[in-house]
Amino acid sequence: MSREERGWSYFLALSRSHGEMVLSGYRALRDDQLLCDVVLVAEGTEFRAHRSLLASASDYFRSMFKEHTRESKAGVVHLHTVSAGGLRRVLDFIYSSCLALSPESLPQTLETAAYLQVLEAVRLCSRYLVSSLSPACCCQAANLAARFALAEAQRQAEAYICAQLWRLVAAGAEASGLLELNAESLAAVLEAEQLPRLPEEALLGLLLEWLDWEAGRWEQQAAALLPRLRYCLLPRPLLQRLASRPPRPLPPEAQRLLAQALDYHRAESRQPALQSRQSRLRLGEESRLLVVAGGLSLHQGPLGSVWALEPWSRQWGPLSSRGPRLRHHCVCVLANFLFVLGGEEVGGEAGDGAQEEEEGGVPPAVRSQVDRYDPRFGCWSRLASMRSGRAQFSCCVLEGGVVALGGRGGPTASLSSVELYETGSGSWLRLPGLPHPLHGHASAVHRGTVYVSGGRAGVAGGGSKDMFSFQPPEGRWQRCPPMSIGRFGHQMAAVGERIYCFVGMYEPFCDIECYEPLHRQWQRLRPMLLDRSCYGLAVWDSSIYLVGGKRWHNSREVAAQNTIVYDTLTDSWSEVCKLPLPFCGSQCAVLQVLHPPEPGDVTLTGEPLYPPQTGHNTLTGQSLHPPQIG
After folding, report:
1. Are residues 447 and 497 in the same domain?
2. Domain interval for residue 373
């Protein structure tokens, strides 16, 4: 009769405590010096142990105690390459599963665990290395991880160094341990896309100091490390000094990149077409919402021309100031350059400029000038002017160029002309004009097609419902389905597969709508909380920000001193933050910019930092000073 016939069945019983009991038994035997069959000696200190447990916990001991080895018969085994303290902690771990670690004991413990191939102890050391990262020990942590091939710990230590590099440089490269950082980790830092608050010239100074810190480093590492700098982010005078008087002969690849960067600086008007990794700011996704030019306020005097919104703190701060106050201008971003086009210059100490015309003054002149802001160096430059002066027009970015459409060429004359700024040549080219003259219209780009809506041709009359599209290969304008509302002085924005159309001037309602080009149809969306006009608008991720502007309150216009956001995913409105001043008539854009300096940030003043061994700048002949704390 079989077991099944007798009613028996099979099952697997598991004891969760058996392994701990066996290990506890080994620990008791070791404490009582029972059945210990080997003595390990390190730095003259003896440790009694059991071969069977050592072989089960360590591949090193498993190989050592095989029958054909000399150590398999020996009662005493000398370990000449490990420390007594490290061996004690690793043996305690083998017998107890507990590893005692501290910053002081970690190097010895890790070295012993790695040598003896106790892999679980190595893993715990790696975890401790990452969990204890700090500015004081991050460089040492990266060095330990590189020495023992702890790939994940090394990656995290390098990421920590990148995030804190501005603090480490400000504290001094030698004091912070940067000069002792291993070459592999330094290369990873130089390749990083995110190095906040640290200008590229400070990174150059750090690298030159590191190369000169130990004899032979320049010859061994310069060719691999110097090309990792982004030379286009270095100021032109510094590049010229580096090319004419390098601290030491530069490797060929560094010379090539240096020459390329000088060509980049010389071709200022063509820089958007020459963008590459060498000219990309090391900011990752750190963008800012900008309020650009004007400072046109109902109650304030002239303001700084560019203000930036910090994404995390939701605080506004000045980014750049420039001369003219503008209204009815346009802005756009191309290759992370900010373009400010046309508009009217406004004088006076307050108001939005309308008083000048009402009181019989000369209307502001319509500008054709184009200015460009470079966030890499925080500087402005004047580009080729548009063929026509334009105000109350629209602009957009199309196929790597800037398109200006329609607008007013004077107090009353509307324009139908369209022109394209070609970054390759730095000049403006004519494109097919609008179907009829327009000003106060809006534009957006979806899948390489320009869409223009609303506006009007003359001084009087309401806004138009018309919508037109233009595709460059075909070179002609086509009529699209009209909006449900005639609009003037409104704004449009393309997000995903939709084009959103917001309120304009003199609209007694707050309705918004969107157009789906693939289906050629309009759809009404959730209205705004309050009416608004003369606001700035920009797309940031999947949200659309409306900044400042004017609204009606008790039969009079008042400034809207807040920033509201429309979430395209949820069709909802919310208020983000208050503005520092009641902006209206300004324009908005999203741009990657250098982090505004704060106390403790690295700022370089005067001559750039070069760290030759003599203590003098080999390029300038001046004494060296560490980076100043701003």
Report:
1. yes
2. 287-592
**CATH number assigned to the domain comprising residue 498:** 2.120.10.80
pLDDT value for 295:
52
**Mean pLDDT in runs of 10 for the chain (630 residues)?**
61 74 76 83 90 87 81 82 92 89 92 93 94 94 95 96 94 94 97 90 95 94 96 95 92 96 94 92 79 60 68 81 77 94 71 42 84 91 95 94 94 90 92 94 96 88 91 86 94 96 87 95 91 90 90 82 92 89 86 64 36 35 29
Quick check: is 524 in a domain? Answer: yes
CA distance 617 to 610: 6
Residue 585: which region, alpha, beta or left (left: phi > 0; alpha: psi -120 to 50)? left
**Residue 278 has what pLDDT?**
94
Single residue among 115, 132, 149 that ends a domain in this structure = 132
3-state secondary structure at position 391 = strand
Q: Tell me how crowded residue 582 is: count the other CB atoms within 10 A of its CB.
A: 21
Residues 469, 481 contacting (CB under 8 angstroms): no
- Residue 374: the pLDDT is 93
Are 90 and 76 found together in one domain? Answer: yes
- Can you count the helices (H) and strands (E) in the chain? 14, 33
Q: Which of 281, 270, 238 is nearest to 381 (CA)?
A: 270
End-to-end CA distance of the chain: 92
Closest CA to 572 of 541, 604, 528: 528
Torsion of CA 543, 548, 552, 553, to 10 degrees: 110
For residue 595, what pLDDT is reported? Answer: 65
Specify whether 482 is located in the same domain as 577: yes
* Number of folded domains that form the chain: 3
Q: 611: which 2 tokens?
A: 């760290």
Residue 405, H or E segment:
strand 401-408
Judged by DSSP in three states, 574 sits in strand
Identify whether residues 505 and 605 lie together within a single domain: no
What DSSP state is assigned to residue 565? Answer: E
Helix (H) or strand (E) holding 153: helix 151-171
Q: Is residue 151 part of a domain?
A: no
Specify the DSSP element, H or E, that contains 256.
Answer: helix 252-266
Whether residues 586 and 603 share a domain: the answer is no
Strands 602-603 and 306-309, by their bridges, are unpaired
Shared domain check, 622 and 549: no
Dump the DSSP string for 422-464: ETTTTEEEEEPPPSS-BBS-EEEEETTEEEEE--BSSSSS--B
Let me know if residue 257 belongs to a domain: yes
Both 489 and 571 in a single domain?
A: yes
Residue 246 domain-assigned? Answer: yes
Phi, psi of 552 (to 5 degrees): -90, 135
278 with 295, same domain: the answer is no
Q: Output the 3-class SS for 275-318.
A: CCHHHCCCECCCEEEEEECCCCECCCCCCCCEEEECCCCCCEEE
